[in-house]
Protein backbone atom coordinates (compact mmCIF):
# COMPACT_ATOMS: atom_id res chain seq x y z
CA UNK A 1 0.00 0.00 0.00
CA UNK A 2 2.87 2.40 0.73
CA UNK A 3 3.80 2.70 -2.96
CA UNK A 4 0.38 4.11 -3.84
CA UNK A 5 0.85 6.72 -1.14
CA UNK A 6 4.06 8.01 -2.74
CA UNK A 7 4.20 9.92 -6.00
CA UNK A 8 6.97 11.76 -7.81
CA UNK A 9 6.24 14.35 -10.47
CA UNK A 10 8.50 13.99 -13.50
CA UNK A 11 8.75 15.43 -16.98
CA UNK A 12 9.08 19.18 -16.51
CA UNK A 13 11.53 21.83 -15.38
CA UNK A 14 11.90 22.18 -11.63
CA UNK A 15 10.34 25.66 -11.57
CA UNK A 16 7.19 24.35 -13.26
CA UNK A 17 6.92 21.46 -10.81
CA UNK A 18 7.53 23.68 -7.77
CA UNK A 19 4.76 26.03 -8.92
CA UNK A 20 2.38 23.07 -9.31
CA UNK A 21 3.26 21.85 -5.83
CA UNK A 22 2.72 25.29 -4.27
CA UNK A 23 -0.65 25.76 -6.01
CA UNK A 24 -1.85 22.28 -5.01
CA UNK A 25 -0.80 22.82 -1.40
CA UNK A 26 -2.61 26.16 -1.29
CA UNK A 27 -5.84 24.57 -2.56
CA UNK A 28 -5.57 21.56 -0.26
CA UNK A 29 -4.96 23.70 2.80
CA UNK A 30 -8.02 25.84 1.98
CA UNK A 31 -9.99 22.57 1.80
CA UNK A 32 -8.83 21.60 5.30
CA UNK A 33 -6.03 19.17 4.46
CA UNK A 34 -3.10 19.37 6.90
CA UNK A 35 -0.05 19.58 4.65
CA UNK A 36 3.53 19.87 5.82
CA UNK A 37 6.76 20.06 3.90
CA UNK A 38 8.81 22.41 1.75
CA UNK A 39 8.76 23.77 -1.79
CA UNK A 40 11.60 25.37 -3.67
CA UNK A 41 11.67 28.98 -4.76
CA UNK A 42 14.15 30.71 -7.06
CA UNK A 43 16.97 32.69 -5.49
CA UNK A 44 16.74 35.52 -8.04
CA UNK A 45 20.52 35.81 -8.32
CA UNK A 46 22.13 36.33 -11.72
CA UNK A 47 25.22 34.68 -13.11
CA UNK A 48 24.73 31.33 -11.38
CA UNK A 49 25.35 28.02 -13.11
CA UNK A 50 23.50 26.27 -10.28
CA UNK A 51 19.79 26.81 -9.76
CA UNK A 52 19.80 26.02 -6.03
CA UNK A 53 17.54 28.56 -4.40
CA UNK A 54 15.41 28.68 -1.28
CA UNK A 55 13.18 26.17 0.47
CA UNK A 56 9.94 27.51 1.99
CA UNK A 57 8.38 25.71 4.95
CA UNK A 58 4.73 25.24 3.91
CA UNK A 59 3.35 25.81 7.40
CA UNK A 60 5.51 28.60 8.81
CA UNK A 61 6.58 30.33 5.60
CA UNK A 62 10.17 30.35 6.86
CA UNK A 63 12.81 30.38 4.14
CA UNK A 64 15.97 28.29 4.12
CA UNK A 65 18.75 29.25 1.73
CA UNK A 66 20.17 26.23 -0.02
CA UNK A 67 22.86 27.99 -2.02
CA UNK A 68 26.40 29.02 -1.18
CA UNK A 69 27.78 32.39 -2.23
CA UNK A 70 30.83 30.58 -3.60
CA UNK A 71 30.76 26.96 -4.75
CA UNK A 72 33.29 24.51 -3.29
CA UNK A 73 36.53 24.22 -5.30
CA UNK A 74 35.61 20.82 -6.76
CA UNK A 75 32.31 21.89 -8.37
CA UNK A 76 30.36 24.74 -9.95
CA UNK A 77 27.27 23.82 -7.92
CA UNK A 78 26.26 26.36 -5.28
CA UNK A 79 24.07 23.87 -3.37
CA UNK A 80 24.33 24.29 0.40
CA UNK A 81 23.54 20.89 1.87
CA UNK A 82 23.31 22.35 5.38
CA UNK A 83 20.54 24.71 4.28
CA UNK A 84 18.54 21.73 3.03
CA UNK A 85 19.22 19.84 6.26
CA UNK A 86 17.97 22.89 8.20
CA UNK A 87 14.76 22.96 6.16
CA UNK A 88 14.30 19.27 6.87
CA UNK A 89 14.75 19.81 10.61
CA UNK A 90 11.99 22.43 10.50
CA UNK A 91 9.39 19.92 9.29
CA UNK A 92 10.19 16.45 10.65
CA UNK A 93 8.26 17.01 13.87
CA UNK A 94 5.15 17.95 11.83
CA UNK A 95 5.00 14.84 9.64
CA UNK A 96 3.25 12.59 12.17
CA UNK A 97 0.33 15.01 12.58
CA UNK A 98 -0.03 15.93 8.91
CA UNK A 99 -2.46 14.46 6.40
CA UNK A 100 -0.07 14.79 3.50
CA UNK A 101 3.65 15.56 3.03
CA UNK A 102 5.05 17.60 0.13
CA UNK A 103 8.82 17.64 -0.32
CA UNK A 104 10.24 19.76 -3.13
CA UNK A 105 12.45 17.10 -4.61
CA UNK A 106 14.49 14.00 -4.15
CA UNK A 107 17.83 15.26 -5.48
CA UNK A 108 21.52 14.63 -5.22
CA UNK A 109 21.84 15.19 -1.47
CA UNK A 110 18.83 12.95 -0.76
CA UNK A 111 20.30 10.27 -3.04
CA UNK A 112 23.20 9.98 -0.60
CA UNK A 113 21.05 10.07 2.54
CA UNK A 114 21.26 13.77 3.44
CA UNK A 115 19.21 16.93 2.81
CA UNK A 116 15.50 16.10 3.09
CA UNK A 117 16.17 12.36 3.37
CA UNK A 118 15.10 12.13 7.02
CA UNK A 119 11.72 13.64 6.12
CA UNK A 120 11.34 11.20 3.21
CA UNK A 121 12.17 8.26 5.48
CA UNK A 122 9.77 9.38 8.21
CA UNK A 123 6.87 9.98 5.82
CA UNK A 124 7.36 6.51 4.33
CA UNK A 125 7.71 4.88 7.77
CA UNK A 126 4.49 6.55 8.95
CA UNK A 127 2.62 5.64 5.73
CA UNK A 128 1.87 9.30 4.99
CA UNK A 129 0.87 10.32 1.48
CA UNK A 130 4.00 11.88 0.01
CA UNK A 131 4.30 14.04 -3.09
CA UNK A 132 7.67 15.10 -4.50
CA UNK A 133 9.62 15.45 -7.71
CA UNK A 134 12.62 13.58 -9.05
CA UNK A 135 14.97 14.61 -11.85
CA UNK A 136 15.80 11.86 -14.36
CA UNK A 137 19.41 11.63 -13.19
CA UNK A 138 18.17 10.61 -9.71
CA UNK A 139 15.53 8.05 -10.78
CA UNK A 140 17.78 5.10 -9.91
CA UNK A 141 18.42 6.31 -6.34
CA UNK A 142 14.71 7.17 -5.94
CA UNK A 143 13.59 3.75 -7.10
CA UNK A 144 16.11 2.08 -4.78
CA UNK A 145 14.67 4.12 -1.91
CA UNK A 146 11.01 3.50 -2.75
CA UNK A 147 10.56 1.04 -5.62
CA UNK A 148 6.75 1.09 -5.44
CA UNK A 149 6.38 4.86 -5.86
CA UNK A 150 4.32 6.23 -8.73
CA UNK A 151 5.65 8.60 -11.35
CA UNK A 152 3.06 11.17 -12.39
CA UNK A 153 2.85 13.84 -15.07
CA UNK A 154 3.48 17.51 -14.27
CA UNK A 155 -0.11 18.74 -14.37
CA UNK A 156 -2.82 19.45 -11.82
CA UNK A 157 -5.11 16.71 -13.12
CA UNK A 158 -2.47 14.04 -12.46
CA UNK A 159 -1.72 15.47 -9.03
CA UNK A 160 -5.40 15.59 -8.08
CA UNK A 161 -5.99 12.06 -9.37
CA UNK A 162 -3.16 10.84 -7.13
CA UNK A 163 -4.51 12.80 -4.15
CA UNK A 164 -8.00 11.38 -4.59
CA UNK A 165 -6.46 7.91 -4.60
CA UNK A 166 -4.78 8.50 -1.25
CA UNK A 167 -7.48 10.63 0.39
CA UNK A 168 -8.71 7.69 2.48
CA UNK A 169 -5.41 7.93 4.35
CA UNK A 170 -6.22 11.46 5.51
CA UNK A 171 -7.50 11.97 9.01
CA UNK A 172 -9.42 15.02 7.71
CA UNK A 173 -12.27 14.54 5.25
CA UNK A 174 -11.43 16.14 1.91
CA UNK A 175 -14.39 17.72 0.08
CA UNK A 176 -15.05 16.05 -3.27
CA UNK A 177 -16.37 19.22 -4.86
CA UNK A 178 -13.16 21.22 -4.44
CA UNK A 179 -12.62 23.66 -7.31
CA UNK A 180 -9.21 23.37 -8.94
CA UNK A 181 -7.27 26.31 -10.29
CA UNK A 182 -5.18 25.93 -13.40
What would you note in describing this structure?
By secondary structure, the protein is α/β, with parallel strands linked by helices. The protein contains seven helices and seven strands; from the N terminus they run αβαβββαβααβαβα. It has a seven-stranded mixed β-sheet with strand order 4-3-2-5-6-1-7, with helices on both faces. β3 (54-57) and β4 (63-65) form a beta hairpin. The longest helix has 17 residues, at 14-30. The protein is globular, with a radius of gyration of 16 Å. Residues 171-182 have low confidence and may be disordered.
Outline the fold blueprint:
Elements: H1 2-5, E1 6-9, H2 14-30, E2 35-41, E3 54-57, E4 63-65, H3 81-89, E5 100-103, H4 108-111, H5 117-125, E6 130-133, H6 139-145, E7 150-152, H7 156-166
Parallel strand pairs: 1-6, 1-7, 2-5, 5-6
Antiparallel strand pairs: 2-3, 3-4
In short:
By secondary structure, the protein is α/β, with parallel strands linked by helices. The protein has helices at 2-5, 14-30, 81-89, 108-111, 117-125, 139-145, 156-166; strands spanning 6-9, 35-41, 54-57, 63-65, 100-103, 130-133, 150-152. The longest helix has 17 residues, at 14-30.
Task: Spell out the key features of this protein.
182 residues, alpha/beta, seven-stranded mixed beta sheet, 7 helices, 7 strands, 34% helix, disordered C terminus
Q: Helicity, in percent?
A: 25-40%
Provide the structure class. alpha/beta
Spatial extent as radius of gyration: 16 Å
Low-confidence stretches: 171-182
| General form | globular
Strand order of the largest sheet: 4-3-2-5-6-1-7
The amount of beta strand, in percent, is 15-25%
The counted number of beta strands is 7
Cα(first) to Cα(last) distance is 30 Å
Amino acid sequence: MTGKLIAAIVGAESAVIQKLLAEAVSDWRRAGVKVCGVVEEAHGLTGRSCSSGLLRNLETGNLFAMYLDEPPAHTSCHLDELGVVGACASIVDRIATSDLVVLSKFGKVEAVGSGLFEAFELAVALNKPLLTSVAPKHHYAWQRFTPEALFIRPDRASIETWKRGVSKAFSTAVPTNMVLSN
